[in-house]
Design a protein that fits this description.
The complex is a heterodimer of chains A (421) and B (164). Chain A is α+β, with helices and mostly antiparallel strands and 421 residues long. In chain A, 44% of the residues lie in helices and 25% in strands. Chain A contains ten helices and 15 strands. In chain A, strand 4 and strand 5 form a beta hairpin. In chain A, helix 6 runs parallel beside helix 10 and helix 8 runs antiparallel to helix 10. In chain B, helix 1 links the parallel strand 1 and strand 2. Chain B is of the alpha/beta class. A five-stranded parallel β-sheet of chain B has the order 2-1-3-4-5, with helices on both faces. Classes of the chains: A alpha+beta (421), B alpha/beta (164).
Chain lengths: 421, 164
Amino acid sequence: MLELSDDRILERFSRIQSVQGGNVGRVWSLCDITSRNRAEEVRVRLAAIVESSDDAILSKTLDGIIATWNTGAERIFGYAPSEVIGQPVTILIPADRANEEPQILEKLKRGERIDHYETVRRRKDGTLLDIALTVSPVKDANGRIIGASKIARDITERKRTERALREAQAKLSRYAEDLEKQVAERTATLRETIGELEAFSYSISHDLRAPLRAMQGFALILAEECASQISPEGKEYIRRITTAAERMDRLTQDVLNYSRVARAELPLERIDTEKLLRDILESYPMFHAPAADIQLEGTFPLVLGNQAVLTQCISNLLGNAVKFVAPGVTPRVRVWAEKVGDGKMVRLFFKDNGLGIDKEAQEMIFGIFQRVSQSYEGTGIGLAIVKKGVERMGGAVGLESGLAQGSTFWLELNGAKIDNE
Amino acid sequence: MILTKPILYAEDDPNDVFFMQRAFQQAGIVNPLHIVTNGTLAIDYLAGAGPYANREIYPLPCLVLLDLNMPGKSGLDVLKWIRTQPSVSTLPIVVITSSNQDSDIHRAYLLGANGYLIKPGKPDELLVMVKGIRDYWLAQNRSPASWVNLVDEQKSAPTNPQTE
């Protein structure tokens, strides 16, 4: 072989030329094989690519007989080339997919290509694997289909990931369902509890108050109709019965009020606090001179609240302010308003000259059934109603106090805009 | 006759019945007070059914005082029933109950109550209320109950087509 400087490759051979038995010389034949050699190089390179591919690449005849088998195929299916070349490709196909191969062959004969067909094949050791299959017809120089090339990619890992993902999704949606079910169940339980509570407070208003009315009524009738036969001590006992019955009546009323404030829909409206305060002061003699001295100071911005509930809250605060004073002291209460929180909230202050409340008691004073003073009448619900009511209107309550200093209770509500603002 | 038509009082609590009877007496109300102790009996009375079949002894009342919370059929059930019965649908009905719940008041009026009173705790307060009932419902108020009875009487007037 001769390699020329211009990259041509020549094949040469010689023949001795003889004429009538006599050697007359040599004839040299030179043949340019450059293109043949290039083709060989390409073939080798292509074969190397096929060989080194991760995918299984094999070819088969139109009868489905395996013709070539690369290392990828060996790795994926577990068969050495010597074991499978010449064998029908069906050895790779699981029994339950036996009908696939005739269909594939049918398509190939029509010159169609099968692209990325996901299916299952069997390894030499019998285990199944998920593959993506691409099958293309192979044609000879005349364009006749003579076989097929088959590229199989192992997608077991991808399939496993997909399955895991699907399972995770299913699990997730199961969890979501469970969660929804739980929420629904708990909501139902809560509704039931609220229903029971409503029934309970209803029963308080009816069933508990009926015997109370009877006790009170008969005690009063007794005092009225049998007055001449009853000793002064007897009359005192009757008075105690009626006082206790009245107290019980107030208690049940307050519990009812509390549960109503805690539960009811509270539509909010614009409230003229000054007018509301004056109306409240007007309504109760215990807020008038000389029983008490109550002064409204400064201006009172409009607030957002529920008229009925705010009336109840303010009445309770003023009621406490005039009630809890030392004996002989005239209750003096100052009421004023301040804007707080960037002017968005309005705080109403109620400063009294009462007994005051020590630090420890302040923590619990807004709790239900908490009474600070044993020697003063009270149900221990009034401030709980105030707190619950104000909170339901989107506000807050608080106090500043010390023993023998008087107390300053405050309640804070959202300010209401004036129309022109 | 119309002035002494009875008042029907549906109330299951014997103490409240006692207080009411006492207050009626003190208020000098002459209309007899007929007591029924549950909702079913109230309906029986108004329908003239069962033990109340005899209208001579149990005439239709001119006013019904109705407790809401009674065993079996409640006051609201009775209210609903009365308003669907042509013969008594226009009867004045005043609810007397211990419930001051807005929902009860609302429902009672929705079902056609003519008034709603809350049972007072003390006998003297009850007397004030009963005097109010006497002055308003028995003395001043005009109700169509008498007209309904008039129609009833005309219907039952003896006409004998066979003798014509």
